Every structure is written in structure tokens, then in C-alpha cells.
Amino acid sequence: MSREVRHDGDGTLEVRFPFDRALVDRIKTLPRRRWNAAERCWGVPEGDLLLLIDLLEGARFQFDAPTTELCRAAGRTMAPGTAPVEPGLFDAPSSTGSSARIADATTDLSVSELNESVRRVLADAFPHSLWVVGEISGFARNAHKRHVTFRLVELDAAGTNLSSVDATLFADARSEIEAKLARAGDPFRLGDEIRVRVRARVELYVPWGSYRILVEDLDPTFTLGEAARRREEILRRLGAAGLLGRNDRLSLAHLPLRVGLITSVGSDAANDVLRTLEESGYAFDVTVHGARVQGRTTEPSVLNALDWFESRAQAFDVVLICRGGGSRTDLAWFDSEALGRAVATFPLPVVIGIGHEQDRSVLDAVARSAKTPTAAAAFVVAVVDESLARVEECRARLLAAASASIENEARLARECGRRLALAVRARLERERVQISWVGRRLAGSVRASVQHARSRMDRSAVALPRAVAVRLARQRERLRGAARGIAHAARRDVAVGRHRLAANVVALGPRAARRMAAVIERNEARERRLTLVDPRRVIERGYALLRSADGRVVTSPTAAPSGSAVRAELRDGRLRLRSEGVDAE
User: Fold this and answer.
1) Per-residue b/e over 14-50, b at no fewer than 16 CB within 10 Å?
2) How far is residue 326's CA from residue 191's CA, in Å, rounded to a whole number?
3) For the segment 205-260, what is each residue's pLDDT rounded down to a tens digit?
4) Which of 58, 398, 413, 417 is the most buried (most CB within 10 A)?
5) Which of 359, 352, 335 is nearest to 234 (CA)?
6) Over 511-564, what HEC string results?
7) Whole-number pLDDT of residue 94
């Protein structure tokens, strides 16, 4: 099998060669190579053609016509069916200082020579330092070292890694950058997830064969400007939606003692808030919901905490979002449009305590801003203090009003007492006159009534005997009428009784005859039954009735033992018998 590269017409380059361990190791360095077991060849995407050419240079591979055309289209020229003859990347620089020429096909390079050649090519391509923009990643785990290695990454809007490059920050450059940041007031510290603009040199580290950039300087204004620009853009959109200050306009409870706290559990911010509320002496009921307050997880973590408190809004009066001090870039994670909208539309008042006095985030523009965690807690305490002061003021006013009212009521009571005494004396005088007048009228009326009663008694004494005589005459006449009525009724009742008695006498004969006939018939029936059950009827049919000497009927052999006398009553007479005892048979 010859060494050849062919295009399969479907976007894949087929690399065929007799087994060679060195060539296999070269092919395996390509990231997208695939071994085709059926065709016994390696498959490489046509997009990696230049990498493949550089990899196989000097190995005497033949390329077919479609592959050669692709090479020409990519700026590389080679004769069909032959190895590449165009200048390559791996020869030493020419005497004129231009890019290198191709090494002779028979020239073998060591690994260090290969890496050195690539280093010189990169040095020619990037002879000067350049500014690179990206986000720092992996800085924190190496921050304790003198020379820090990390990655500079490019992310899309969704946070997906589009590309990255290794970066190295030597101790001297790091010291200069940190001094530069200190002179600018330490607006931020070097760390992960910070978008920066750095000046760097491109180089290849020969011992490892790794491509990297060496950071020489950093532009602080870019990082701060990006954060400020992003914050201003978010504030502009929130303002257009009418959300700026919306939560701040929610009325706060007079006694906001049920407090929700969103912060990192166990952090200085949480401790400051809890200590401030505890030292106030009020009975605050604090519920802490843990959240990440730095990094990419800040937004989803705080949104999750807000959702938790919103679902239990009836159990809370106010919610605090707090984070301790830090650099501006540390606090920039709260410059989130999603967080701003969530806080602005939150149903409970929200107090923001993030960073230092001079720091301001998007959340400070939509809710109550207290600057620091301690100030946020102090704000809530101040609201309770104010409510307590109002209560004390109302109490003092109430006591003063009550005292004045009591004094006024006492004065009115004294005046009323005086007026009442005068009125009572006047009323007593009027009653005394009235009683005297009524007494005189009553005496005259009594005398007239007594006189009238005497006259009526005299008239009654004259009329009483006559009335008694009339009444007695009426009663006598009534008694005589009653006597006549009783006599007439008695005669009528006697006549009715006689008539009824005569009727009964007439009806008694037939009824008595019927009753007598029934009784006679009943007695005759009884007589017939007694005759039928009479023992003599049995004797008349040929049977005998045995009696003992004392006249008792013998019904058992034991009643007539041997030698005892027995009488037998027959139909025509009696027999005297003597028992010989029980018959054995």
C-alpha cells in the first residue's frame, strides 16, 4: 500500500499508508481524525487539510487532484500526485527575515526543533504585543503562586465558551498590574469571571509545545467601563419599563418585625445584619435564605430566594438583600436586568444593602437603598424606632389630653354640683309649696268624700230592708217553681219506669223459657257423657272391676299381694276373691 491522501467527495480526506507507528502517532494528534476499519484508512475532515499537510510534510505522501485543488484554494500549491513543494512552516527563516521556507523532504526534525520552528513562526506573525479582550478563568486556584497561569475565555450571550487561550502572568507583571489597580483605588481585584482587556505577547513554550499569551499589562478602565456601560443600559431599559423606584414606593409596615434576609449564610454580611437586629432589643423574627452573592450563579441564586419569599409573602413584612464589601467587579453581579425586574415587581418592600457607601448597583435604583448590610438592618430598626416614637408621642399626647380632660371634667363637675344644689333647693321649695297646696286640696276632698259616703250609707240603710224583702220574695217564688218542676219530673220518671218494667215483664217469659231450655239441653249432654265414661258400662260388656278390701280400685299386681281379699264387680253382681300373688308368666 502506497502513502496517499484522497478526497472521498463527501468532505472527508482518506489517509492510507502501510502501518508505521510514527505516522500513526502523528495522525492521532489531529483532534477530529477517525479510523475507518472497513476501508483500513484514517478519515480527516477537509477543514483540517492544512493541519494534515503540515503533519505529513516530509513523509512522501501522494495527494489526488481534488485534494490538490483544495490546497490551492487554501493558498498552498502542490503538483498532482506528488508531495507538496510549496514553502512550509517548519524551515528556518530566510536571510531576508521573511517567513520560512519548507525543509527538505529528507530532513528529520526533533521535537524541540519542531517546537522552536513553530515558536519562530509565531514570533514572526506577532512581532509586537497586542491587546486581547476576554474573561478570566482558573485564576483563583493559582493565585497563591508567583507566576499565575489561567485561561482567557470568550463567552457568548448565553455564557457558552466560544474559544479560550492559555495565559501566563509572571510575578513582575502581576506586581505592576496590582500596583496600577491600587493607584486607581482598587476598583477590582484580579479573579475569575472578570472581563478584562490585557496587553500580551503571543509565544509557544518550547519544552511543552504549548501555545499561550504572556500578560504584560491590563486596562482597568475597560473593565470598569464595561460594568458601568452594562449597568447604565440596564437602568435605561428598566426606566423605559417604569420600574425604577417601583418597589421603593411600596408602603412599609409600621412594625416590620418579620424580616427575610437573602445573603450568603454565615458571611460577615449575615452576621452584621443579625447582630444589628439583635442589639436593637426588638423581637425581630428573621428568616435567612442562603444565596450566592458573587459569580455567575448570583442571578439564579438570588432569583430563587426571591421566589421562595414571594410564595410566602403573607409571613413577612420586609426582605433584605445584603452582601459585604468587595471590589466593583465583585458587586457587578448584582447589575442584572432579571434581578432588577424581580425586585421592582416584588410584592414586599425590599431593602438593598450591597457593598460600601460609595457603591451603587441596579438594585439600588429600583428598591430602598441602604448601601451596606449594617445600614440595611439599621434602616429596619429605624422604622421600628420611628413607629415606637410615634406610639410614645401618641401616648404622651393621650396622657396630656386625658389630664386636661380630667381637670375640665372636675371643673365641670364642681360647677354642675353647685348648680345642682341650687336647683335642688329651688325644687324642694317648689315641692314644699306644692305639697302644702295638695294637702289642703286633699283634706277638702277627704271631707267631701266622707260626707258623700255618709249620705250613701244613709240611703242604703233606708233602702236595704225593702231590697231584702224583694230579694226574699223572688227567691221564694223561684223555690216554688223549682218544687213544681221536681214533682212533675218525678211523676214523669215514675211513669216511664212503670212502662219499662211492664215491657221487661212481658219479655221475661220467652227469654227465661229459652234460657231454661238451653240449660236443660246442656245438662242432658253432660249426663250422656258421664254415662258413656261410667265404668259400669265397661263391666256390662263382659269386663270386671277389681277393688281391694278398703274399696280402692286395683290397677297393679302389687296392690293385691298374695292372700289379700279382692272384690270383683261384674255385670250381674259381685264376687269375693283371694289373690294368690303375681303370676310369673
Assistant:
1) bbbbeeeeebeeebeebeebeeeeeeebbbbbbeebe
2) 12
3) 878 888 888 888 888 777 666 666 677 777 788 888 888 878 888 888 888 999 99
4) 58
5) 335
6) HHHHHHHHHHHHHHHHHHHHHHHCHHHHHHCCCCEEEECCCCECCCHHHCCCCC
7) 38
Cell (9 digits) for 468:
231584702
Express as a percent the part of the chain with pLDDT over 90: 9
Burial (CB < 10 A; 0-12, 13-18, 19+), residue 567, is: middle
pLDDT digits over 452-469, tens only?
Answer: 888 888 888 888 888 888
Find out whether 136 and 194 touch, Cβ atoms under 8 Å: yes
C-alpha distance from residue 545 to each of 531, 536, 554, 574, 577 (Å): 17, 9, 8, 9, 12
| Strand blocks (E) in 349-402 | 350-354, 368-369
Q: Is 97 helix (H, G, I), strand (E, B) or coil?
A: coil
| Cα 130 versus chain centre, distance | 57
Q: For residue 244, give Cα distances in angstroms to 98, 240, 360, 422, 477.
A: 60, 9, 14, 73, 120
Looking at the chain, the number of H-run helices and the number of E-run strands are: 13, 18
Written as nine digits, the cell of 431 is: 315641692
What would the grid cell of residue 29 be? 494528534
